[in-house]
Amino acid sequence: MLYICATPIGNLKDISIRALEVLAASDIILCEDTRTSKQLLSAHGINYKQLIALHQHNENQIAEKVLNYLSSGMTVTQISDAGTPGISDPGARLCQIVLAAGYKVSPIPGACAYISLLSVAGLDKPSLFYGFLPSTKNARIKILEEWAGSSYAIGIYESPHRIIDSMQDIVTVLGECRPIIMGRELTKQFETIKYATASELLEFIKSDPNQQRGEFVLLIYPDILIKTAEESLTSEQIKVLKLLLPELPPKKAVSITHKLTGANKDLLYNYAIKSVK
Ligand code: SAM
Fold it and tell me: Which three-class secondary structure state does DSSP give residue 32?
């Protein structure tokens, strides 16, 4: 049996009794960084048998070895540095190889940064999990443009050195129609949970260096204001925008409609993106 076992995302106590039992009983524990996992195991008094590093560069190779361990009846458990393996973490390839070889894979559920944020987001609509946004601006903007007008909430992970750039792009592309909830340092001493519009959140992060540190998960709410946008824009404003959209790029059409009619740019842009899809 291969177990895929969640570990804490900050607070070391966030680990299940079953996870501790399975880790203690495992013949092999696969982990990302052996130093990080040793700390967790020793904090819980687990005398592990063998720790093997599995990361994105050796996942195929280790997965082949895991098949040998499983064939000799050993219990193997995979953990990552924090949270649930396979969720923006190594593990997918391992599962593919083990499943394809006909062995059983079983989850030991537990902490996950995205699910933790979702649980406090008060969202009663479907959501999608994306993971890390691309590191280059152009690629980021392209993805964000695909999300404009989407009726799904979207979960993303972000690192401290890219949070401001990504938030800036979110403000530019998604505007004010998509509120966001940010979870920073969840379950840790300086946990911050902040619900705001995109530009308010950007300002909040920019204005306090402490809010630029640590680990971030964001949930961009669905385009809940698109209906309000349709309702808020007058028929005259929509008419002007619709006349211009076939002739001009959306940004230009929005800008001219704004100048001619005084309509809110974010609402116009959101309407435009949805109608040109
Ligand atoms: N597998 C993990 C999970 O289940 O959440 C995610 C691993 S991914 C490599 C690490 C990213 O998850 C971080 O850069 C951050 O975006 C997010 N993350 C992890 N721990 C977090 C925490 N305590 N608070 C907020 N975000 C966190």
Answer: coil
Beta bridge partners of 162: none
Q: How far is the CA of 171 from the centre of ligand 1 (A)?
A: 22
Distance, in Å, from the CA atom of 230 to the CA atom of 233, rounded to the nearest integer, reads: 6
pLDDT (mean) for 245-251: 91
Residue from 227, 216, 226, 159 nearest 188 by CA? 216
Rounded Cα distance, 82 and 89, in Å: 9
Pairing of strands 105-108, 127-132: unpaired
Which domains, from first to last, does the chain contain?
2-111 (3.40.1010.10), 114-227 (3.30.950.10), 232-276 (no CATH)
Would you say residue 224 has pLDDT above 70? no
The atom number, within ligand 1, closest to the CA of 156 reads 16
